[in-house]
UniProtKB/TrEMBL annotation:
Its main location: secreted. The active site is at 132 (nucleophile), 242, 242 (proton donor). It is found in: Secreted, Extracellular space. Residues 1-21 form the signal peptide. One of its GO terms (molecular function) is gamma-glutamyl-peptidase activity. InterPro entries: Class_I_gatase-like, Pept_C26_g-glut_hydrolase, Peptidase_C26. The lineage of its organism: Eukaryota, Metazoa, Chordata, Craniata, Vertebrata. This is folate gamma-glutamyl hydrolase.
């Protein structure tokens, strides 16, 4: 580990060690800042600027539940990422379409994943959320393998098939009963993915079985795949579906649902994760550093009504 990174890790160990942190219920941080990982631009994007992007719907999703957002840009140094990790209160890995083992997105995911594991092991509560591609990336990181399989789920809305573990899960236990019932009965979770983690591959992999609890599954008619999961020991959460799309994406495609119930689901998932990040006390070194890092410094680009992402933030 290089010197600057070592300094930040040492400082964090002092600030967030079990002996100095409140082990019961520490005071919540009502000003959480969540990092969203950027990824390489989609090839052929006529609106692309710079080398990477974040879909604005993920930013709005977190802001709707009371968080602020910092973009985590690609092609930065390890020291810069370590410094940023100890400045933010949680991480969201968004959907997209990049290589899960060779891209800059995957490289950054591993850096922050490893830092989050170490932090949580030191009683420094750091939540991570993965959506769609983010879900898939977490499975690769936790198993050290790509265990995904093709499914017919590129544009379809589905109900969740809850497991028994969902009832007492951290994610769903505070959801209203009527909303859980709607989730289990109505086609309101947006699926836009070609690859999935099948129950068969999950069951066969010891690392994944020990790391993640399955909260819901789905099927494309032939293969059963995992749609929602959370880690046993860590505040890591993953959904193969897209809760951010219902309120914030408007392309006319099968699978896009804008009913009041679907919008409620979006808010409750976002609120749950944002509340998790309030348990983290990381902070920027100064108000000026915080101000420079926030997403407000960037302007989203409107991509048109026929785009899968209505707006993107682009970065150099």
């Amino acid at each position: 580990m290089c010197s600057l990174a070592a300094v930040f890790v040492a400082i964090a160990a002092l600030l967030y060690s079990p002996s100095l942190s409140a082990t019961s219920s520490p005071q919540l941080n009502y000003r959480p800042i969540i990092g969203i990982l950027a990824q390489e631009n989609i090839p052929g994007d006529p609106h692309a600027q710079g080398s990477s992007y974040i879909a604005a719907s993920y930013v709005k999703y977190l802001e709707s539940a009371g968080a602020r957002v910092v973009p985590i840009r690609i092609n930065r140094t390890y020291d810069e990422y370590v410094k940023l990790f100890y400045s933010i209160n949680g991480l969201l890995l968004p959907g997209g379409d990049v290589d899960l083992q060779k891209s800059q997105y995957s490289r950054l995911s591993k850096i922050f994943y490893d830092l989050a594991i170490k932090a949580n092991d030191a009683s420094d509560y750091f939540p991570v959320w993965g959506t769609c591609q983010g879900f898939q990336q977490l499975t690769v990181l936790s198993s050290s393998k790509n265990l995904l399989t093709l499914t017919n789920t590129t544009a379809v809305a589905l109900p969740l098939m809850f497991t028994q573990a969902a009832q007492n899960s951290r994610m769903f236990k505070s959801f209203p009963k009527d909303l859980l019932q709607s989730l289990s009965e109505q086609n309101i979770t947006a699926n836009f993915h070609s690859w999935s983690l099948s129950m068969q591959n999950y069951t066969r992999n010891v690392k994944l079985k020990r790391f993640y609890k399955v909260l819901s599954t789905n099927t494309d008619g032939k293969k059963e795949f995992i749609s929602t999961m959370e880690a046993y020991r860590y505040p890591f959460y993953a959904v193969q579906w897209h809760p951010e799309k219902s309120p914030f994406e408007w392309i006319e495609k099968p699978g896009m649902v804008h009913t009041p119930t679907a919008v409620r689901v979006s808010f409750y998932t976002a609120s749950f994760f944002v509340t998790e990040t309030m348990k983290n006390q990381h902070r920027f070194s100064s108000p000026s550093e915080e101000e420079k890092a926030l997403i407000y410094n960037y302007t989203p680009v409107f991509k048109g009504l026929n785009s899968i992402f209505m707006q993107n933030y682009y970065f150099d």
